[in-house]
Amino acid sequence: MRNTIRHVLPVGLALGLVACSMGDGPVRVAEKFWGALEDGDLEKARYYATEETANSLTMNEEGEDEEADVEFGVATVEGEYTVVPTTIISKGDPPEPTIELETLLVREDGKWKVDVARTMLSMFDDEMGELMEGMTDAMGDAMQNLGKAMTEEMEKLGKKMEEELKNTNSNSSNP
After folding, report:
1. How many CB atoms lie within 10 A of CB 117?
2. Which of 38, 82, 117, 142 is the most exposed place for a label (fewest CB within 10 A)?
3. Is the peptide bond before 10 cis (omega within 30 degrees of 0)?
4. 73 in any annotated domain
5. pLDDT for 64-110, tens place per residue?
6. Where are the beta strands (DSSP E) in the chain?
7. What DSSP designation does 161 have?
8. Beta carbons of 27 and 103 less than 8 angstroms apart
9. How many domains are contained in the chain?
10. Are 59 and 42 in contact (CB under 8 A)?
11. Are 54 and 116 in contact (CB under 8 A)?
12. DSSP 20-68
């Protein structure tokens, strides 16, 4: 048992030192990014953002005083991005709706950085999907109703044509 501990302990310590030397992981960077925004520290938030998207960060004058809790899920790798599920829960009175999004991070110069543009777009993924689904349903209903209306009108037209033919035939047989 002691031999096992002697062999495992140095390996564990080495792995710990390597992990620490790699800097903050993606979830920790996401936490620092959202914490800086919550504190109103735009420069700090920009530090955790990619160089390309950092300057897109601005403070909303109306929402600066609003407090929120930010919760993070388990990070997953999706292609070149690491995705951290993020939930923003308003503590305002009245509370704003809860926002669910994905904080997307990429490696930039060996450090995890938030891609602000893609993170903000992720807020609309579910909403856009729901919107498109709603539009598809509405179009399907409209087409179905149009089909019914056309069928009814064609039936009316058919009956009217039959009546006209009967009237024409009865008028032509009576000189």
Report:
1. 14
2. 142
3. no
4. yes
5. 556 889 999 999 999 899 999 999 998 887 878 888 999 999 999 99
6. 68-72, 76-78, 81-90, 99-108, 111-114
7. H
8. no
9. 1
10. yes
11. yes
12. HHT---HHHHHHHHHHHHHHT-HHHHHHTB-TTTGGG----TTTTT--E
Mean residue pLDDT across the chain: 78
Residue 152 lies in a domain: no
Single out the residue of 113, 122, 135, 124 nearest to residue 24, CA to CA.
113
Alpha carbon distance, N-terminus to C-terminus of the chain: 121
- What CATH number is attached to the domain comprising 8? 3.10.450.50
Q: What is the mean pLDDT of residues 23-35?
A: 93
Instruction: Locate the DSSP E strands across 18-147.
Output: 68-72, 76-78, 81-90, 99-108, 111-114
Placement of tokens 């996401």 in the chain: 30
Q: Structure tokens of 33?
A: 């990014």
For residue 146, being part of any structural domain is answered with: no
pLDDT given for residue 72 in this prediction: 95
pLDDT, position 12: 43
pTM: 0.58
Residue that is written with structure tokens 């292609």 in the block:
79
Long-range contacts of 143-152 (CB under 8 A, 24+ apart): none
Look up the domain containing 110 and give its range: 2-115
* Residue with the two structure tokens 């009956």: 159
Contact 103, 120 (CB under 8 A): no
